[in-house]
Structure formats: structure tokens, C-alpha cells
Amino acid sequence: MTTKPQDFPRRTALAALGAGMGAALLSACGRGEAATGAIAPLKSHAPFPLGVCAMTAQMGDPQWAAMIATHFDRLTPEWEMKMEYILQPDGSLRFDAPDRIVQQARNYGQSVLGHTLIWYAQDGDSFQRLKGNRPAFETAYRAYIRDVMTHYKGHVDGWDVVNEPILDDGSDLRDCLWREVLGDAYIDIAYQAAHEADPACPLILNDYNLEYYPAKRKRFLSLVEGMLTRGVPLHVLGTQTHIAADLPRGAIRETLRDLAATGLKIHLSELDISLKEAAKNTLDFKDYRDAQRALYEEAAEAYAALPSAQQFGLTVWGLRDKDSWYNRKDRGLIADEPLLFDDAGQLKPVGQAFVKALG
């Protein structure tokens, strides 16, 4: 049995409260005050929503909470809104962790981005048991989307409905349980079910490596064109922008230009720029710091240059370097530095360049 989020306050009613709570948290936390009190909120530099990912494990850290409340407009649950967390082996749903993230966001006058409903990498025992029965499988597939969407109806400002559907070489859709049973139509079905559950909610198609592989980007745009031609409810395109500091200059700008040519809103959805990936795990990042800064500037400038009507928002994938998924993976003894704030909560030079470029 699941519970609905109880009386989540509306963003407009809590904007002032959020700022006050953030200031109070900063005063209560000496490290947070030192790290963020001397700089203007990052969100004040962006005329569009500026987001960051969040995990419930981070919510007990006063510095993290203070910085999140101060600098960002939107939270994206990093993992705890995914099927792997919500869907239980018996087919029941649990919402405790994502509910906490939604409640925290509402407490601070922030919005929430739903991430994600259908992903090739996750399914679940209850779906595996149904894969020999297509009608029952489709009924359960639609029901999962409906139930999760309904649980958060009115409390999120968009959903990544299908995540990462395209192979990196651009040759085809990824193989997954959803495609095995429902065929290529699994994507259209997901968006139709999501729209039926919450007709007012913006629906997003999200993928990664679009900056690296023009063939993948072309196949992604072909999928988008087909969906729009078929009347599938699709409103936003997400480009994750998990990149390394050696990405050639201009690739981010070109990707955003190509996606914006569809006329849809654009979400730069999971931005981080790895030094370690560029340096191929060597100890010395000095040759890549300038390149990292230039890419952060390019991302900010290129996104800010989009027509305002197409700016759904820009989300960075982590707060401090120690919060990054790169540093939670088994990547040896060398810590990566892919984000805007360092481990102590100080805005780094690359973060300062990013903020300046937003303007």
C-alpha cells in the first residue's frame, strides 16, 4: 500500500520561506556560511530554472541542505524515483524516499523534475513474470506509469518518461525488456499513458552522448520526428551532457542547436564535466582544467542563447565534487573534480566562470 505526498505546499506560497530557511541553515552551519554566504545564489544568474540532483542520504548534511536551498530552483531525484527503487518484487510501489525529496523541495519553494519512468536498464521481477503474456504486460506497463504519475500529479513540473533509448552508434533503439515484449511501440505507449495520467505535465525524452556521436544525435532526432508525426505527446528534449574535459569545443553548442531546431523545449539535464575521464586516470589534471572551464562556459552560453520559450532548465548532476556519481563509483584512488563546488563547498574557479557565462 502506498501513500500520497501529504499537502505539499505550492512553490509560489513558499518562495520567500525557502530563501529564509536557506539563510537560517547557512547561519546554523559555519562551513555552509563560509562556502556560500559571500556569493550570490547561482539561480539568481539564470533566467531559467537551475537544477541539481539529490539523494535522501544527503539531506542530513546541513551544508548540503543550505547550499541546495540557496543556489537552486529545482531538484531531480538522482536515483530514488527510478523503477529500481519504486517497484517492489511483488508489484507494489514504495514512495517514501522520493516523497522526502519532493517535500524538501516544496519546503524551500523549489520545483521537482521526475526522473525517470522507463529506462532500458531497469525493469523488475513483476514485469519479468509477465513477459510471455503481451496483453497483461502492456496493462501492467501502463498501470505502473499511471500510478507513479498520479502519485506525483501536481507536484512535479516534468517527467523523463523514456530515458536513454538510443544505442551510442545510432544504429537502432537499445534492446530491453520493454522492446522485447512491446516492440518499438513501447516508447509511444509510455508517452500516451503518461499524458493520460497527467495531461498538464511536460513529458521529456532524455538521452546522453548526443554531443559525442552525431549518428546517435541524428537517430535521436529521427525518433523525435516520428513521435511528433504520430501525434505522440512529447514536449521537452533532454540532453544529459555527461562529458569529459577533452570534448571538442563547439560540440555542446551544435547539439543544443540541433535539438532546438525541433521547436521543442530543451533541458540540459545532467551536466558534469569529468577531469579524470579526460586525463585517463592519470594523477595530473592540470592540462585539462582550462578545457573544463571552457566547456562549462560553452554550456552556459549556448543554453542561455536559446530562445527563452525553449529553455526548460539547466541541471547540474551533483553539488560538491564529493557528491558526484563519478566519485561514488569504483574508480581507484584518484578523486574526480567534475562539479562547480569543491568538497568544502567553495565555488571553484570553473564555477565562477560558469556563473559569469550565464549572464
Description:
The structure is a single chain. With 359 residues, the protein is of the alpha/beta class. The chain is 42% helix and 14% strand. It is built from 14 helices and ten strands. The longest helix has 19 residues. It is globular. The N terminus is likely disordered.
Outline the secondary-structure elements:
Elements: H1 11-28, H2 30-36, E1 50-54, H3 62-71, E2 74-77, H4 83-86, H5 96-107, E3 111-112, E4 114-119, H6 125-128, H7 134-151, E5 159-163, H8 177-182, H9 186-197, E6 203-207, H10 214-229, E7 236-239, E8 242-244, H11 251-260, E9 265-274, H12 275-279, H13 286-304, E10 311-316, H14 349-358
Parallel strand pairs: 1-2, 1-10, 2-3, 4-5, 5-6, 6-7, 7-9, 8-9, 9-10
Helix pairs in contact: 1-2, 1-3, 2-3, 7-9, 11-13, 13-14
Short description:
The protein has 359 residues and is α/β, with parallel strands linked by helices.
* Mean pLDDT over all positions: 90
Structural class label: alpha/beta
User: SSE string, helix = H, strand = E?
Assistant: HHEHEHHEEHHEHHEHEEHEHHEH
How would a textbook summarize the main sheet?
A: 10 strands, parallel
Strand portion, in percent?
5-15%
The rounded Rg comes to 20 Å
The low-confidence parts are 1-37
Report the strand count: 10
- Specify the overall morphology: globular
Total count of helical runs of at least 4 residues? 14
Report helical residue fraction: 40-55%
Q: Termini separation (Å)?
A: 48 Å
